[in-house]
Amino acid sequence: MEDLSPLEVRFLQLCKSLPSFDENFYTQSMDLLKEIRKNHLLPDTSSSIGGGEGEELEMFWFAFILYWVRRLSEGYSGKANGVSLCQILRATKLTIVEFFKEMPQFNLRAGSVLVKLYGEDWEKKLEAKELQMNFVHLSLLSKYYKRVYGEFFLSSYADGDKKNVSASIKGNMSNYQRFGWLLFLALRVYAFRRFKDLVACTNGLVSILAIMILHVPPCLRNFSTHDSKLFVRRGNKGVDLIGSLCNKYDTSEDELRKTMDKTNNLIVQILKKKPCLLSECKIEHLEGIDTDGLTYFQNLMENSSSLCTSLDTLEKDYDDALRNKGELDERVFVNEEENLLGSGGLSGGSVNISGAKRKFDATASPAKTATSPLSPPTASPISCNFLCDNVGVAATPVSTTMATAKWLRTVISPLPSEPSSELEQILSSAGREVFNHVIRRARIILRAIFPDNTSDNTQSANMMDSVWAEERREEALKLYYRVLEAMCRVEAQILHVSNLSSLLTNERFHRCMLACSAELVFATHKTVIMLFPAVLERTGITAFDLSKVIESFVRNEETLPRELRRHLNSLEERLLESIVWEKGSSLYNSLIVARPAFSSEVNYFGLLADPIPSLDTVAAHNNISCRGLPPLSFLHKHDISQGQSRDVQSPKRICGDHLNLSTSPVKDPKLAFKSPKLNLSPLPLQSAFASPTHPNLGGGVASAEMAINVFFNKIVKLAAVRINGLVKSLQLSQQIRETVQCLLQQILSRRTELFFRRHIDQIILCCFYGVAKISQLSLTFKEIIHAYRKQPQCKPQIFRHVFIDWSSSHQNGKTGQEHVDIISFYNEIFVPSVKSLLVAVHSASATSKAKQLPEPNHNIDGTGKCPGSPRPPPFPSLPDLSPKKLSPAHNVYVSPLRSSKVDALITLPSKSYYACVGESTRAYQNPSKDLTAINNHLNGKVNTKLDFDNVAIVSDSLVSSSLHRESDSDISAPITTAAATTSNSLLEFKQSNNTSD
Predict the structure, then answer these.
(1) Is residue 77 part of a domain?
(2) What are the start and end residues of every segment in region (Disordered) (predicted)?
């Protein structure tokens, strides 16, 4: 004690306060504490990190140090009597929500120390993202469980109700709900221990609900077997309980019966209850239920004594399991320990736990949802049906997940697990062995993505149950074949060719397709393991590769539910904003070919992507047996390896320089403000995946430039959405908005290196402050950060930790790499690099503004105006892709027209070129009648529960005039009537369902 500093003394006292104090654990924790202090990461002075000062900051560091040691120390992470996360949080007086919100920042700050002590793979060992997602899922499941429990059982009594209920049962009513949750946790520990996904866990909760319907005393029921809404399936013998629950909660009957068998086995093994066939038991309160195939347990919860015994047994069993895994105590969700759970949710950048219940008026801007402005928002009829089939179930994150799983189960699973005859013909046209190569590749890659416990050589948490993994592989395989066939048909039409050998023999293309299919399967089941971007590592591709297929994948699978479209669009945003710019991205391989000026810097810092691993390497790394798979020919192996060398040389230019990055904007002002044309038309896949280093294979400089330009266009569009959001939050002028956008485009074109290994929001924030400074606005960085915190994509680490490599900044006396705050980055790196661009952009903006001021009007009619002079490029027109609220007083929205209706309209040019919003009794029988019906509805002239009395009626002539508007008109104009437009932006009415778990 005498050698310890005051800080270390406080840490020792904290360790001793833990329920399971261990000398070895304390020693390792103290060593980590000293190492962190040695690296000046834990100052004694106050700091803003952790959301507080002094003691609060100290508690955050103590909590993370204990957690890191608990999870990373050899031989201790699985030790009995270990310290759990909840025990650490209780000792440090922190909440779970606070802990997870701050985790990314503390992991980033202590990363260098953790690498030194625990190795380069410390993040994989820590499994922080998995644990955090597990908490999010449990939050959703607990709300879902409480809701469905309340639909069937009573939770409280009013005076005079249920007079025949004994006092003993009254006092223990909440224990029935607790019993169900503890039984669910036992199911997670034993049946779902290797993999935890939201669909399987929801099936588990529904199975437990079925067991409780059979066993909870009838006096606690909130239902009757004659209720046709709860029990919709009936037979000659009574209510089909399993079928009715499956219909109500969108579960699979086969999966539910399997899960019920697992739950029943747990009751036998843990609670030592003897099962019997319900059909052989005479239970009076179960009359009206078809008992065939159902199991009953005597004395499970018939009275207070049996219930308490079962609760004590489940509690003890879970305590033993918790000590061995040392993770989150999942009982907190029924213990109602609000002081430990914390307030608020993990959203807005940490983890988004909102699902279908997100408000539609918040989705007017693509930046406010997972919907990207870069991919088509087309909603298919079938996806809408899946979300609306069961009107009796509120749209919640869990119910939306189950509806999406229903799509995978009913649309994809029935498909054959082999290529269709049409796809086989397409593949065979590219060569005799292409068909065999596709089958072999798909089996190997999907087995690498979905490993089972016999083929996985990674740590135990990433192991999957063999049956579960095989089912997911088959789903991903069928989806891959389905979309591949659709893509090939479209590609052949675009290129006007029948032979697609260049594309079909491209290894990266097929692996991206397999990765995309697998990611959708993971997203459908909401798995905790293999969170994105883990699928990239398993397939050997990079984020830049995957970004090339996402848009085409969405376009070519029309049945894709809205939630999966949002997921892919969200991934595309994540790829564009930061992941593509990370070290080892294939973006740099194309960039140095298209922009040779960057070759020295990219090669010096080792930013190039590694060669794509061969299939044999993937199979060997994942212990995958290739028995029974078609052999890979020598010729095909050679084709795959071409162009994958890491040592990429920059060839001489063989085509025109579309965007000369080396030209000074001061010397050439016209070129300085020439921005990339925002054409987001998808690049043909054959060109997108052509090798940048092999001109003879359709690649070369031209191919690289096309890929880079398409990518830069997407970056500009994404940046425009985020700049627009910040401008509105800061209440800045349109001129400032356009100046910031112009500056960012110039930086992207001429100072592209500023984006290397950084987040695009970091550049955007600096652009705002730079423009504010040179425009002499009274806008501080603090105000910009405050506005940025309100953006849905905000993560504190974005402005707290900006990457800097001092060797590339030419700063005297500073070497190495580190992360600094946004202000330090702005002063040290950003300003010296973009000062000339900033001055030029501001000067051009000011000149343009002055020249566009109206001259004195000498026209007699008073209508004459002087035309404005050229100005910096206007702010990009942002398409309104998400449902838009029609009136602030009513839940009426407009959204893009379904693709099937668009196709129908395009094929009938002799009829109307515009579609009326809303549904017709017949297929667009008459625009005038349709508009009249809609206006009558909005004005309350039809029988409806909603009152639309303040909406004006629009005439047919006004609708017709709207057809001549420009496609890039201002999207911010308010929508106040039932409107119609051209087939490029066809609309239909949607009505929101803002409900929650």
Answers:
(1) yes
(2) 850-882
Q: Which domain holds residue 13?
A: 6-42+53-126
Secondary structure in 3-state letters for 901-965: HHHHHHCCCCCCCCCCCCCCCCCCCCHHHHHHHHHHHHCCCCCCCCCCCCCCCCCHHHHHHHCCC
Confidence of residue 192 (pLDDT cuts 50, 70, 90): confident
For residues 852 and 432, the model is more confident at: 432
pLDDT value at 952 more than 60: no
Same domain, 601 and 502: yes
The SS3 assignment for 543 reads: helix
Please give the pLDDT value at position 385. Answer: 42
Residue 542's nearest CA partner among 523, 515, 563, 524 is 515
pTM comes to 0.77
d(CA 545, CA 543) in angstroms, rounded, equals: 5
One-letter amino acid at 899 equals S
Minimal CA–CA distance to 457: which of 445, 469, 468, 448?
448
Which tokens in the block code for residue 957?
A: 């002539």
Residue 338's alpha-carbon distances to 95, 96, 172, 183, in angstroms, are 9, 10, 21, 22
Question: How far apart, in whole angstroms, are the C-alpha atoms of residue 865 and residue 129?
Answer: 59
**Inter-residue contact 718 to 755 (CB < 8 Å):** no
Is the per-residue pLDDT at 853 higher than 60? no
**For 165-211, what is the HEC assignment?**
CCHHHHHCHHHHHHHHHHHHHHHHHHCCCCCCEHHHHHHHHHHHHHH
Instruction: Answer yes or no: do 490 and 615 share one domain.
Output: yes
**Residue 929 tokens, joined:** 């009648």
Under a CB-based contact definition with an 8 Å cutoff, are residues 253 and 198 in contact? no
Shortest CA distance to 296 belongs to which of 262, 254, 264?
264
Q: Does residue 91 share a domain with residue 144?
A: no
pLDDT, tens digit, for every residue of 281-326?
877 778 888 888 899 998 888 778 888 999 999 999 998 887 766 5
Both 115 and 140 in one domain: the answer is no
Q: Please check whether residue 756 lies inside any domain of the structure.
A: yes
For the cut 80, the answer to whether the pLDDT of residue 964 exceeds it is no
The lowest-confidence range among 537-551, 748-762, 883-897 is: 883-897
Contact between residue 426 and residue 485 where contact means Cβ atoms under 8 Å apart: yes
Measured at the alpha carbon of residue 282, what is the angle toward residues 276 and 288, in degrees to the nearest 5? 110
- pLDDT tier for residue 683 given thresholds of 50, 70 and 90: low
Taken in order 641, 645, 646, 648, the sign of the CA dihedral is negative
Helix (H, G, I), strand (E, B) or coil at 988: strand
Distance (Å, whole) CA 112 – CA 831: 28
Q: Is the pLDDT at 154 greater than 90, yes or no?
A: no
DSSP 289: B
Which residue in 623, 593, 627 sits closest to 608, CA to CA? 593
CB 153 within 8 A of CB 176: yes
